[in-house]
């Protein structure tokens, strides 16, 4: 099977809807900065590869872009290809018949140049990814055909012939005389524009070369077109014949490639900006990765060093503030983290960073960490605490149960689950029972995940669960570090008492103030 898509090994990417977890993990905030609001690019970030093989396909492609310094070449291709698309759109909408065949060969020249330059860029690159290797082979085959070579040569010659023509316009005694000569002086175009501006000062339109890719021409410029065609009929006859003989020439593979490659280019630009600002992003070792010295796959447990919340990093970078990173590792037979600790201790931020780690691994890009190993997960499921809905009239607990129900009813083997502060409005006993049921459900389905809660009792319900806690520094202040150790609840309580002024002295002072 030949090259089809740079995003998916098995079939081109299809339209999808935004995953439900985007808001919970603040991925929408990250993507807004990556895509700069371009919906066409954003759609590719919403699509998950079909399986682990396709994830690996993307990781290898992105590695080739970085290691072979292909960003500039691919960006150049995209820029040129967009010029071609612009011409094609205007060709279809123009009302001037003589312009249509001219723009046809003009677009053809740009199209063939874009394809040829892309082929040349890949020729000397030491490619390792299956995707780029197949694209390179396709390009070599496509550009080597007689049809492509003749099309490229004819379009280039017609464009050169047209650009060699110079229009002279003389204004004298209220009359304009126009004649056309062969010339290689490109400055004549500027003289023509200056001339028009002088004699037509009342017209605010910017005058242009009649054969440039312009939406509309003045009536005077339309007359220029007719004169040029009359004086040089051979160019227009050949152009008309080429237009009729090859009305369609764009290969859909390149059109799709031009769209899809923006997925990698936009992320690469974003990544370089974050690296320059001092943040680390790493290529994750995945379940499809192989050890260099053996044929064995890597350890199938999740681990990461220097993991941080990328959305928070974007915000803090704009404010000139650092972010706290953490290390984590799921050991053998460990499936779920239960994270407890003081309020405002970084628990939710840590949970989001773990979800983002899985997401960026799944879509085949670098992750916000110094290093990471991430196995394949079928999906990402999230449930974050929400305020009760005034519109539905349901309380907060009911809102949480309504959101949780479809997650638990649909079979999701090997998904990664992120749950944040469930059942906070329920009595402790009820919250523990419901929390135990939720955890056991996802454990029995073989899911990995993290459960953020104030209920430390949930840490001990199953040997596949490991407890984490948000730590305090030596002064009893939150340091936003997450570790596999018990929570210092006395220190947490002291921290909250000091933070909200609930100590004996502060309370006594306020009571005396009230009495006075």
What is the fold's blueprint, element by element?
Layout: H1 21-24, H2 27-35, H3 39-45, H4 52-67, H5 71-93, H6 99-123, H7 130-143, H8 146-163, E1 165-172, E2 175-182, H9 187-199, H10 219-231, H11 233-245, H12 252-276, E3 285-286, E4 303-307, H13 310-319, E5 326-329, E6 336-340, H14 347-362, E7 371-374, E8 380-384, H15 396-409, E9 416-420, H16 428-444, E10 448-452, E11 465-472, E12 478-483, H17 489-499, H18 504-515
Parallel strand pairs: 3-7, 6-10, 6-11, 8-9, 9-10
Antiparallel strand pairs: 1-2, 4-5, 4-7, 11-12
Helix pairs in contact: 3-12, 5-6, 5-12, 6-7, 6-8, 6-11, 8-11, 10-11
Structure write-up:
It is a single chain. This protein is α/β, with parallel strands linked by helices. Among the domains are: 164-245, no CATH class; 279-485, Rossmann fold (3-Layer(aba) Sandwich). 50% of the residues lie in helices and 13% in strands. It is built from 18 helices and twelve strands. Strand 11 (465-472) and strand 12 (478-483) form a beta hairpin. The radius of gyration is 32 Å and the shape is elongated.
